[in-house]
Amino acid sequence: MAAVRRRLTDLELDALVVTAPENTRYLSGFSGTLGYLVISGEGAEILGDSRYWLQMEAEAPGFTLVRSVASSGLLALLADHLKRLGPRRVGFESQHLTVDQHRRLGGSLTADVALVPTAGLVEELRMLKTPHEVELLRQVAGIASRAFDRVRSAIRPGLRERDIAFLLEQTFRELGADGPAFDTIVAAGERGALPHGRAGDRELARGDMVVVDFGALAGGYNSDTTRTIVVGEPTLEQTRVIDAVRQAQTESMALMRPGVTADAVDRRAHDVLAGEAHAFGHGLGHGIGLMVHERPFLSPSDQTPLQAGMVITNEPGIYRPGWGGVRLEEMVLVTEAGPQVLTPASHEVRVG
Ligand code: GLY
Ligand code: MN
Ligand code: MN
Fold first, then answer.
1. C-alpha distances in angstroms, 184 versus 123, 199, 225, 243, 257?
2. Distances in whole angstroms, Cα of residue 73 to Cα of each of 5, 39, 78
3. Strands across the sheet containing 330-335
């Protein structure tokens, strides 16, 4: 909150309206899906409807609850609240508030109130994880890894992709997670060439290489890990391609240190795989926390210098249409002492 208030001063804003659920949760603790924050130099209010009043009082004790009385909607309550507060320059989250909401809010305020777009103000703060957040990420990554290791031993020919996804998601919950972080990806054989191939009806056959990309969600924090396995004995070519992807991961991960820019890490992985046909077309990784994909992004367009306390995925891949794909993904904590992997799931390729 102190950091948000410093940004308000820098941007000459009298107040900031926070509407993105992850940002609301990050700043207030409120974990429901609908609640707005209004933050000013002194004030901190949370606006909600009756479904959430008790939860807001319990989870966001640092905020004054402003209750919506009728079913007129939260936006009308926000406009009324701002009229009472009387700020002149009000920041809003331009990457989240819809055009329609902006139009309605603006129409309810007097002409001397300026709605000022802010982009990524809270997201920038979220890039650096607190020790508590790191602990939550380590826990959820540990749950997912243990689930994978358990399910891995049950993988055999005849099982469908969707069976593996179901077993994983069930095991996440058994181990204490709230559910999956995203639709589990299980892409067998030639389907491995689809970087985001959802688990479908395809049955696993001996010799299939299978990309399994899985994440759990617990306490609001997400994990994200990928393993590529082979049902039975891997061929020489499967082994060679997996080794190439691992080499790209090892070399690029070594650069995940404070001061190295995100794009430089991405470039290294792409350079290592430059000689491979169908090397990956996507960025090397992404920050992860309250959202699966958040800043910084290991991609050519992100020059953010890495800092100790960031948690970022590293996920190079090779995707060959008609043949299959390989991706390996770890969650990495950037520390002064170097990269620390948070995802201990088994790396053994052969299953069944
Ligand atoms: N599972 C989505 C991703 O790896 O980004
Ligand atoms: Mn993933
Ligand atoms: Mn990822």
1. 25, 7, 10, 24, 30
2. 27, 20, 9
3. 294-298, 285-287, 311-314, 330-335, 338-341
pLDDT for 117-134, tens place per residue? 999 999 999 999 999 999
Measured CA to CA, the distance from residue 160 to residue 162 in angstroms comes to 5
Q: Give residue 73's Cα distance to chain centre.
A: 29
For residue 271, pLDDT over 90 is answered with: yes
- Tell me the per-residue pLDDT of 252-265, one tens digit each, with 9 for 90 and over: 999 999 999 999 99
pTM exceeding the 0.85 threshold for the entire prediction: yes
Backbone φ and ψ for 119, nearest 5 degrees, come out as -120, 120
How far apart are alpha carbons 309 and 329 in whole angstroms?
A: 19
**Ligand 1 atom 4, closest CA:** 224
**237 pLDDT higher than 80:** yes
Give the mean pLDDT of the chain: 96
Q: Over 90: is that where the pLDDT of 279 sits? A: no
User: What is the third-level CATH fold of 2-126?
Assistant: Creatine Amidinohydrolase; Chain A, domain 1 (3.40.350)
- Fold designation for 131-351: Creatine Amidinohydrolase (3.90.230)
Ligand nearest to the CA of 226: 2
286 CA closest ligand 1 atom index: 5
> Which residues have a Cβ under 8 Å from the Cβ of 331 and sit 6 or more positions away?
137, 141, 223, 224, 225, 288, 311, 312, 313, 341, 342, 343
Rounded average pLDDT over 84-113: 96
Q: Is 53 exposed, middle or buried (0-12, 13-18, 19+ CB in 10 A)?
A: middle
> Rounded mean pLDDT of 189-208?
94
List the domain boundaries for the chain.
2-126, 131-351
**Which two structure tokens, joined as six digits, stand for 301?**
């367009």
**Ligand 3 centroid, distance to 135 Cα (angstroms):** 19
Altogether, the residues listed in the chain come to a count of 352
Is 100 exposed, middle or buried, given 0-12, 13-18 or 19+ CB atoms closer than 10 A? exposed
The tokens for 276 are 């491979």
Q: What pLDDT was estimated at residue 71?
A: 66
Ligand 1 pocket at CB < 6 A? 182, 213, 224, 315, 329
Give the per-residue pLDDT at 70. 66
